[in-house]
Design brief:
The protein is α+β, with helices and mostly antiparallel strands. The chain folds into two domains: about 240 residues, no CATH class; about 55 residues. It has 14 helices and nine strands. A six-stranded antiparallel β-sheet has the order 2-1-3-4-5-6. Strands 7-8-9 form a three-stranded antiparallel β-sheet. The longest helix has about 30 residues. About 40% of the residues are buried.
Length: about 400
Amino acid sequence: MGSFTLNTFPGKLSLTQEPPINYQMHIKPMDWSTNTDITTCAPHEPNPLRRSRCEGDSLAYDAFWASRHPWDLVDYYLFLILIEKKLQHREIRLSRSWVIESDGSRCENFGRIIDSDDQMCQVGWVDPIVIFTSLPVPHAVGFENRRIALGMNLRSQSLVGYLLDSAPEDITEVVLSPAWEDREVLIDLPLQRFVDILGHSVEPGQKPGEILREGLLNYFRESSRRLHAGMDLVIVIQFIQFLRDAFFGGQMSAGIDYNATTECLSYLVEQEEHLRDILCRESNRAWMGAHTGVTVNDLHRRGQTPSEPLYDLFVDQVVASPIVNEFSFGAARMLPVQDTSAVLKSQIRVTTTSWFDSTDMISLNEDTVSECDSTRQLTSNIVVLLGLFCSECTWMMGSERWES
């Protein structure tokens, strides 16, 4: 068995940075083969002929370098690990989320709002949007720091995604930067429809079907641009994780008390873990494929053969990503008709503080959903909006909803 020695040298290497030009000069030759001199081999670089390569020292290129696969494609499971490495705890994620008025006129820390008795930061909101993460776009030619900011509009209860051509990594700087004014609406998905899509598409324990292989947002035309299937799943996972975090925040700030809490949270956890498992399995399959000699050309040929749906989260990267090029979807796909008019037998009580400006009892059945909508439109209090969010989430994800 041969051996090799690594020399230490100044200039710290980072997984999120491209190795310096003279990187190989600092590595002793390995004894593995008498036919190849490792010092004469250029370091593995993304193919410069691919249009999706990110140029220069940028966050987008860093994201690609850290999560790249030997096929010079993005491994979105590694990408997910990369973006979550500093945000593994709920408290940290909440403290790094921000509430911003849609016109950018006001900005408050989300964690402070839900964990504070200061009414001044909780009231007076017109169209509040919680921005909870900002994802680098791994392939973005001509846009070194292109990012996708994800959030939720608490007034309309819609999950939103904004494409920013040039934005800093820190969320605080994102919402306060000029890039916010020039944002492009990428996703505007009502929470109700998101839950319906999850329930229709994600079946824990089952192999991914056509919808998951194409991406939920892609398949149901809920993104203004077509995303890589892997990026699509990453965004959906981030949305689910935020719903769990916001659910916890709503409980903490509004004092929610009802019996369906466990069912709602377990539903979200189950869906999220299933999608993470799909990313992990696809990543493992692709790495094993590369190890056994599968090439990008093989990948392209298999992508043209419906009977061989292997490496689904990599095939659509062989062609240029429409997140870079202008692309518009047609009309949104409809979900199968389901009976959602069942009246809940149980009522959901929202315990709020003394400045609650509406009724204490909210019964989420067919007759009073409009009352909730009215309250959401009238209140300016973040705590009340979070309480309504928790209540309606419980109804949306509860098993009683589907009973006839």
